[in-house]
Amino acid sequence: MSEVSEVSQEPPVGPDATASAAPIQSELDRKINRFFPGAVVRKDLVKAVKGNAIVPSYVLEYLLGQYAASDDEATIQAGIDTVRKILADHYVHRNQSELVKSTIRERGRHRIIDKVTATLNEKDDVYQAEFANLGIKGVLVEPTTIKAHPKLLVGGVWCICDIEYFHSADSRVVPWILGSIKPIQLSNFDIEGYLAARREFTTDEWIDLLVQSIGFNPELFGRRAKLIQLVRLIPFVERNYNLVELGPKGTGKSHIFSEFSPHGMLISGGEVTVPKLFVNNANGRIGLVGYWDVVAFDEFAGKKKRTDRALVDIMKNYMANKSFSRGVETLGAEASMVFVGNTSHTVPYMLKHSDLFDELPESYHDSAYLDRLHHYIPGWEVDTIRGEMFSDGYGFVVDYIAEVLKSMRSQDYSDRYQQHFSLSSDISTRDRDGIHKTFSGLMKVLYPHGEAAPEEIEEILRFAIEGRKRVKDQILRIDSTMADVKFGYLDRSGTWHTVSTLEEDEYPAHYHRERREGSEAADSVIGPTASATVIAVQDGTPDEHAQVVEAPLFEGHREFQENQRGVSFDTLLAPYLRGAGQITIIDPYIRQFHQARNLMELIEGIVAVKDAADEVNVKLITSESHGGEDKVRKQRELLHKVKQGAAAGGINLDVSFANTIHDRSIVTDNGWKIVLGRGLDIFQYVTGDTFDLATRLQEYRQVKAFGVTYIREGE
Questions:
Q1: What confidence tens digit (pLDDT) does each residue in 105-139 have?
Q2: In a 3-state reduction of DSSP, which class is residue 260?
């Protein structure tokens, strides 16, 4: 039990004494509580107790883990009350620092929660502490305390402290005395119990538990989006891991490095200096990399930012060799380096005009530095954080999972794929290291017990290769002297599997600039499945007398990756529906608003490709909503509105219900059958904001992973 438990804990009264109504527990939440009792907490409770306390989430969850780590509502409410009272009595608000100092003076001793930083006073040969919110400094700290908690010297640590007051006639003596200090982090845990409990969860359940532990609702994330979130955990579980994430603002790039773990330090990119990060040669004091598991640089992007060239050179050496120099001495360190920053242009713009590292300061836009990065998270694939994305389910208390990840840093899982797959022989050592470290990190996060099926191993191997390929492909744009690499892997049968990045599939004309004039460029412009009108061109000008030729429509199967953009019904389906008088759509899931909207957008596409004087008969076969008469009524109302809207465009929509259907397809009387793996429900969540392009234009939406097969059956 925490030292805070020694404080009297009378429950508060009044309207703030209880949190909001408890959410209904899911089956997964019940399972989480069954196998991890006392190590998990309901994630919406942090917001309930935080109030205006400016503290990291892990501090609050540490307290909640002491008093509210339960699925019993009465225990949770009592725990919330206790944590609120602890914060009210002991957390130091900056604007109340004088009142707290007065309390310490009058009582002689008082317990506080504050961020504490220590420094060595060389003149007097003593360690002295400074309290960030209380605003006092020069407080003597015993050397044994510094030895036990060296992070006090670099960046500071949130602590529970007993402060005493004793005034002396000697003005040089600081009246504040540090009675006791306890950093806010877990003291011990059972790693074997953690591994044993992991075996009780399926992979999907475990991923959802981890996503909830980060604080997000897994139901609003696809598989790829979840993996992207979990890659952010790799620096905490893998030593000397170099990660970069660039993307639009508001996607939570830096949140996990400031709030998730007491072992990570987030600093502004503009605050980085050689003494702060590595070593102060004047006094020999080691910097952040010597004490923290993760050092993350926020706001790292910005072309015009001034940078210290000496810092860049030392950083390059550290990222490659895991060491740096202190005078004539070479020192090693294990801190992972994370670089996060904002982009100001779209992905196709960057690919067309520069590269995906375009936003970095000039000194870092260097192939030697970039080649030391192990993985590039595509921040443009991550949704802007919205209120409904946060979880009210159960997740690990963050200091518990932080200690689990820290305990696994010394382990190496990088060879766990080799009994099933092998990398290309022409992949360089640095490329291989990057892939191995990402794979090892994801294995430790997802399969810490070391048990994974071949298809699960293949999934994270592909993901690791893609992240390193994203780095290398951009380096090749910057430095033409580097050799091109064929990224992929062989399975046990000897079959080669090529790995591409998602933006490579979306924008091949810009991604492969040297081939922009080729056929791939034309394919990307017209869409992968549309027919193309080809017109002869002479001296750069269309020939008005040339014959117009319709390129044949694609036949066969295509796969689309989760988060891919540039897909619309206009290119995916409408060309195959041109000229049809009878169209049958079979999709059992036209039940909710967004699914009815998708149907209406398909009808808009049919209207666009038909003659205005023609009418088209569309038959929809779907199934009724489950969950009662009210849901069925709402479904029928939606479909009635679609029918009314379609009629204005010359589309006669007929709807029938068949509750035994499972397949999804479109069949036309002009000879095409289109088999739809997910039906029409291929797009991810769209906000509905009138000023969001994705609301109006499908090609700006991210898709779910799906496949589509085009079969010509004859007219």
A1: 999 999 999 999 999 998 999 999 999 999 999 99
A2: coil
